[in-house]
Amino acid sequence: MAAAGEAEIPSKRIILKDYVTGFPKEDDMVLTSCTSKSKVPEGSKAVLVKNLYLSCDPYMRAGMSKPIPQSYATAYVPGSVQPSRLARTARGLFVTLLLQAIIGYGVGKVVDSGHPDFKAGDLVWGITGWEEFSMISMPQQLIKIKYTDVPLSYYTGILGMPGLTAYVGFHEICSPKKGETVYVSAASGAVGQLVGQFAKLMGCYVVGSAGSKEKVDLLKNKFGFDDAFNYKEEHDLNAALKRCFPEGIDIYFENVGGPMLDAVLLNMKVHGRIAFCGLISQYNYNLTQHEGVHNLFCVVTKRIRMQGFMEPDHKHMYPQFLELIIQYIREGKITYVEDVAEGLESAPSALIGLFSGRNVGKQVVLVARE
Amino acid sequence: MAAAGEAEIPSKRIILKDYVTGFPKEDDMVLTSCTSKSKVPEGSKAVLVKNLYLSCDPYMRAGMSKPIPQSYATAYVPGSVQPSRLARTARGLFVTLLLQAIIGYGVGKVVDSGHPDFKAGDLVWGITGWEEFSMISMPQQLIKIKYTDVPLSYYTGILGMPGLTAYVGFHEICSPKKGETVYVSAASGAVGQLVGQFAKLMGCYVVGSAGSKEKVDLLKNKFGFDDAFNYKEEHDLNAALKRCFPEGIDIYFENVGGPMLDAVLLNMKVHGRIAFCGLISQYNYNLTQHEGVHNLFCVVTKRIRMQGFMEPDHKHMYPQFLELIIQYIREGKITYVEDVAEGLESAPSALIGLFSGRNVGKQVVLVARE
Fold it and tell me: In terms of domain of life, where is this protein from (chains A, B) (predicted)?
């Protein structure tokens, strides 16, 4: 129930200083002190959430760039262009309140609610701010957390957007069949580790690539991939794929783009399928600077299907997905590795680490324990 | 019925002199005199065909290159590497007989048959040699011509491989819906002119591009495209597409590749579809030299489906296709423009003309009138 109180509590948030070009740096973001309302304003249907976990996802790089028509995500509002910034000298406190935090997926606990579907104490996941408290003005996008016998952070990963991404990407987009060969790039990441496990559960032969020995070991020993390789140690990606797939690839789950895609195209089988989930190797370049892909003629000769997809188109599948996956987790059929950074202040470093592959598993930021 | 006679008749054929690198030239091929058996050898199930029309198709460029694993077509056997060539000095006549003609689609008349499905006088279309007479050793790939109230040459085009290509490419691969926007490149060619007309029949808004004013006029005035442009006169393909499709493109029928594809990706709508039929702009380069495509990230953000296809996978649809199209032709609902070169000797020039866009409409070679 919304309360009339307009009291404020101290909070902290992370803002983007200015639009980023090229690789983002930790100090492109800054932790600022601010205040948060302690209650939802009377008459509002907003929900006030205390953030517990924040998710670091590659798509967030798009939000750090100047808005362009072909972008992946709505651009964040950096401090440099916030209208309130202009008024800073005159009305300092007011300015601080209006500065917008970076936004992304997170897990939180409802502190106060003006919306009938939520009440104080509810655990929720969805789009929130990179801050201690967030006033969610469109709470209909929040999902109430149903199962708490798993780590709450899982709702930023296996039980959240990356989990549904992996599920629909593999099962709906790749049209997999038992016995087929599956290649996953960025295979130890938030999505890749799940795609590999889904493919194994289906009876496919699965190979993954990642950027370190530690990750390759995870793929083979923890996630049960049939084979894996460190792409940074292969001077010839085409040869690496031929070694792993002497008969060719039926399904490629594309997370990286660029030269890897070119090598994959040479190794696809006839009637192969490529699910375009993301192209993380290219996110720090403008679209026109993306590395050229030269082997698209294979799409004709091999009658390949390349299909882009995004999780929001498939949200309606979340309930059935959740029931299936929670069961898999409980039965030990699927495992999930997270890389948890502690404290809101560690979030900028955790986010930029995605682009150099520093994270091992799903990158999460712990903001507060319940 | 196969006859015992081993008599020979004078014939002519076109052979590839040697594997081609880069743009093919007319004198990469040569017209040679030879002889042909006048009857099918006794006991053979072959069919002897007198060739009437030969088809010039872009995919044939692949057959002119040194064989590579990713090729579009079986390489032709050029004179330079035919084993018989080695024995030339010693056994000149025998050599000439074994030299293999360029092969491709054609229309012919059965002269003699060892196969129960064919008899002398039958009109057929299918894979044949670039020669006056061809001994077809696998006649099961030949199709008997059912309707002769249309030009026989149509069986190299609208009623042959390009026709079925256009039909399955548009109706099966593009998943078109009434009212959608459709863009066709190489739109006045053997396939493109049909795709545009199929799309109009379906109630789509159709724009085509081609390489001359004459072709653009054909698109607008003969084939009923809603709009068309000469890509050679546009210094900015992205701007040209934005002008023609202010709301974006639902369906792109891809015949050319390279920079055109990059421009199209920027202009596709969300959930758009791209049928990869061919990439003629790239055929004279080795695969690794194909121009890089930079805008593939649009495949993710717009959830685009790109699907390669080839007509042979869809041969089972030919009978239903034929009945539909013959009716359309008779009712004047579909028209077809051919560019007919006269004489076998004109075939090399006709074929290489495809790669500079010299042909206006489907390129055919008339070898002999019935």
Answer: Eukaryota
Picking from A266, A277, A309, the nearest residue to B70 by CB comes out as A266
Considering only CB atoms, A308 lies closest to which of B277, B288, B303, namely B303
- Residue B363 has a pLDDT of 98
The pLDDT tens digits for B275-293 are: 999 888 888 877 668 889 9
Each residue of B116-146: pLDDT tens digit? 999 999 999 999 999 999 999 999 999 999 9
A247 contacts on B by Cβ (under 8 Å): none
Phi-psi group of B61: left, alpha or beta (phi > 0 → left; psi -120 to 50 → alpha; rest → beta)? alpha
Which residues make Cβ contacts (< 8 Å) with residue B177, sequence separation at least 6? B250
> CA B103, B104, B106, B112: dihedral to nearest 10 degrees?
30
Distances (CA, A) of A245 to A204, A268, B286, B316: 13, 9, 24, 32
pLDDT in tens, B1-17: 444 456 899 999 999 99
Contacts of A296 in chain B (CB under 8 A): 257, 261, 276, 279, 290, 293
| Nearest alpha carbon to residue A106 among A66, A136, A63, A149 | A136
Mean pLDDT (chain B) is 91
B273 closest CA partner among B281, B265, B284, B283: B265
d(CA A137, CA A116): 13
**Chain-chain contact of B310 with A292 (C-beta, under 8 angstroms):** no
Mean pLDDT of chain A: 91
> Distance between CA B359 and CA B340 in Å, rounded?
9
Q: Please, which pLDDT band fits residue A84 given cuts at 50, 70 and 90?
A: very low
Q: How far apart are CA A255 and CA A275, in angstroms?
A: 9
Q: Are B50 and B113 in contact (CB under 8 A)?
A: no
- Report the alpha-carbon distance of residue B113 to residue B128 in Å, rounded: 15
CA-CA-CA-CA torsion sign (A192, A194, A195, A196): positive
Contact B310 A303 (CB under 8 A): yes
Average pLDDT over residues A192-217: 98
pLDDT of residue B158: 98
Q: State whether residue A310 sits within 8 Å of chain B by CB.
A: yes
Q: Pick A300's closest partner by Cβ from B298, B304, B310.
A: B310
CA B305/CA B259 separation, integer angstroms: 19
What's the distance, CA B208 to chain centroid? 19
| Rounded Cα distance, B295 and A84, in Å | 36
* Pair A40, A86: CB distance under 8 Å: no
Could you give the dihedral angle defined by the CA atoms of residues A169, A170, A173 and A175, in that order, rounded to the nearest 10 degrees?
-170
Containing H/E element for A95?
Answer: helix A92-98
pLDDT of residue B80: 65
Q: Which of A237-241, A283-287, A300-304, B351-355 has the lowest mean pLDDT?
A: A283-287
Cα A329 to the center of its chain, rounded Å: 20
Residue A128, SS3?
strand
SS (H, E, C) chain B: CCCCCCCEEEEEEEEECCCCCCCCCHHHEEEEEEEEECCCCCCCCCEEEEEEEEECCCCHHHHCCCCCCCCCCCCCCCHHHCHHHHCCCCCHHHHHHHCCCCEEEEEEEEEEECCCCCCCCCEEEEEEECECEEEECCHHHCEECCCCCCCHHHHHCCCCHHHHHHHHHHHHHCCCCCCCEEEECCCCCCCHHHHHHHHHHCCCEEEEEECCHHHHHHHHHHCCCCEEEEHHHCCCHHHHHHHHCCCCEEEEEECCCCHHHHHHHHHEEEEEEEEECCCHHHCCCCHHHCCCECCCHHHHHCCCEEEECCHHHHHHHHHHHHHHHHHHHHCCCCCCCEEEEECHHHHHHHHHHCCCCCCCCEEEEECCCC
